[in-house]
Structures are given as structure tokens and as C-alpha cells.
């Protein structure tokens, strides 16, 4: 299974990255031409920049919101299970459904957000939410955060469950308040949960293309064109299989490098704690 569905496609992508394949018919080996094109064209650097900005927004917001919800639910065991289920439900939905629903909500003409602003007397704030370059990427990233915050929360709740109750009981007996216990005991002991959450959200968002494709098609003016979306467009719109394969290989190398550095830094932080 691993050889058929992972190793073979990986080696085939590497092989095609050295060709001018269009998916059909004959093709020629062009050496490193595709990689040279990627390294010398500004549009690819811009897409990588958009991807890194998208990753930064998602990782920071998703981690903080997941931690906030997990901390609140840890202190409220009576409603923990039902709230955890409600928060996790968006992660079970299809990217297509989520993308189209939020595209309708953010629509400048009949969208729910602009209608709500009209209803509460704030019509002056209405705008083309996904048509503004400075807002589009942030909004698409926040939709991703909305979708997976419950997943992050579940991992943090598992981290809270692994904290020995004796430690918290001792802190209470020593007079430590809730905020002090959180900063000095809970937060340091949640280091493994931070490692898992940051690693998974970083790797997942670096290759994302679904929400930008559905909500904005990479616009406006390339503001939401992640490298994953650029690969899909190069493959299925331009039919440049060789170039798309080279982009995929470059993305894989970047993801591996980022994951390696993150894992090393976060594991060192765990050891220090």
C-alpha cells in the first residue's frame, strides 16, 4: 500500500519534474529547466510568500484559540464533552461545503455579513470582503482557523488530561490562583501538545489549496494564491505536468525543512521544561 500510493507517485513526480510533459503524448527530458524557472521567476516567490503568510496566520490564531477553548473546557467538566463535539464538527465537514458557505456569507451582494451590518445600522462598514487584497488572505485563513480550532482544542484537552492532578492540588494548597497555575504549571506541561499542534497545522496549511481555490480562485491579484493552488492551476489549467511536478518537489523540500526545524526547536523546548 505504501509503495503503490506513496512511493511510486513520489518517484514519478520527481521523474516528471525533469521533463516538459503535458500529461498526454510524448515528452522530452529538459534537465533542471523547470527548477531554474521556479528559482528565477518572481511569481513563484510571491506564491511562497503568500503561503508563509497564510501559515503564520493560521498557526498563531488556531493555536491560541484552541488553547483558550481547551483551558475553559478543562475548568468546566460538566459541559466539556458536548462543547468539544460542537467545536470539532467543522473539522468533519468537506472543504468544498465550508468554502461555498463562507463565500456566500462574505458575498458583497447578498452575503450574510453585509446583511447583518445593514441590520444593526453599520452599513457604512460593508465592503467586498473577498475582493480586497488586504482582507482576502486573512479571511480565508480565518475560515481555516474556524474549521480546525476544535481539532486543536481536542489535542490540548488531551494534554490537560495528562497533567497529574496532584501537581495542581499542591499548587492550590500553596495559594496559587487560576491564572498563576495556568502560567506556571499548566502551560509548561502542555509543551508536547504545542509541539503536536504546531507541527500538524504548519504541515497541513503549507500545502493547502482547497479554501483559496473555492473562495477566491487565488485572487484578487494573486493575494490568496498559495503554492498548493499554483500547483493545481499549473497542472489542470495549463497542463504543464513537468513544471507542476517540479513545484511539488520544491514544496515537499520546503515542508520537510520547516518541519525539521520546528521539531528540533520544539523538542528542545520540551527538554528544557
From TrEMBL:
Transmembrane segments: 48-73, 85-105, 135-161, 182-203, 239-261
Subcellular localization: Cell membrane
Swiss-Prot/TrEMBL keywords: Cell membrane, Membrane, Transmembrane, Transmembrane helix, Transport
Family matches, as CDD domains: TM_PBP2
GO terms of biological process kind: transmembrane transport
Cellular-component GO terms for this entry: plasma membrane
Coiled-coil zones: none
Protein's membrane topology: Multi-pass membrane protein
Occurrences of domain ABC transmembrane type-1 (ranges): 48-262
Family from the record: Belongs to the binding-protein-dependent transport system permease family.
UniProt protein name: Sugar ABC transporter permease
Source organism: Xaviernesmea oryzae
Amino acid at each position: 500500500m505504501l509503495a503503490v500510493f506513496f512511493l511510486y507517485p513520489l518517484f514519478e513526480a520527481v521523474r516528471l519534474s525533469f521533463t516538459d510533459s503535458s500529461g498526454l503524448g510524448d515528452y522530452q527530458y529538459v534537465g533542471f529547466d523547470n527548477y531554474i524557472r521556479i528559482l528565477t521567476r518572481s511569481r513563484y516567490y510571491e506564491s511562497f510568500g503568500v503561503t508563509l503568510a497564510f501559515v503564520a496566520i493560521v498557526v498563531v490564531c488556531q493555536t491560541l484559540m484552541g488553547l483558550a477553548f481547551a483551558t475553559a473546557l478543562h475548568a468546566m467538566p460538566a459541559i466539556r464533552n458536548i462543547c468539544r463535539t460542537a467545536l470539532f464538527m467543522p473539522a468533519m465537514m468537506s472543504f468544498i461545503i465550508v468554502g461555498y458557505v463562507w463565500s456566500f456569507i462574505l458575498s458583497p451582494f447578498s452575503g450574510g455579513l453585509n446583511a447583518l451590518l445593514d441590520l444593526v445600522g453599520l452599513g457604512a462598514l460593508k465592503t467586498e470582503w473577498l475582493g480586497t487584497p488586504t482582507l482576502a488572505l486573512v479571511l480565508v485563513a480565518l475560515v481555516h482557523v474556524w474549521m480546525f480550532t476544535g481539532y486543536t482544542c481536542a489535542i490540548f484537552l488531551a494534554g490537560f488530561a495528562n497533567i497529574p492532578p496532584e501537581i495542581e492540588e499542591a499548587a492550590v494548597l500553596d495559594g496559587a490562583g487560576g491564572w498563576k497555575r495556568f502560567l506556571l504549571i499548566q502551560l509548561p506541561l502542555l509543551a508536547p501538545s504545542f509541539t503536536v499542534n504546531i507541527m500538524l497545522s504548519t504541515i497541513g496549511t503549507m500545502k493547502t489549496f482547497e479554501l483559496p481555490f473555492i473562495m477566491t480562485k487565488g485572487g484578487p491579484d494573486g493575494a490568496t494564491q498559495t503554492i498548493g493552488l499554483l500547483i493545481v492551476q499549473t497542472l489542470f489549467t495549463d497542463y504543464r505536468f513537468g513544471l507542476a511536478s517540479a513545484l511539488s518537489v520544491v514544496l515537499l523540500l520546503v515542508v520537510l525543512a520547516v518541519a525539521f526545524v520546528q521539531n528540533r526547536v520544539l523538542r528542545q523546548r520540551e527538554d528544557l521544561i
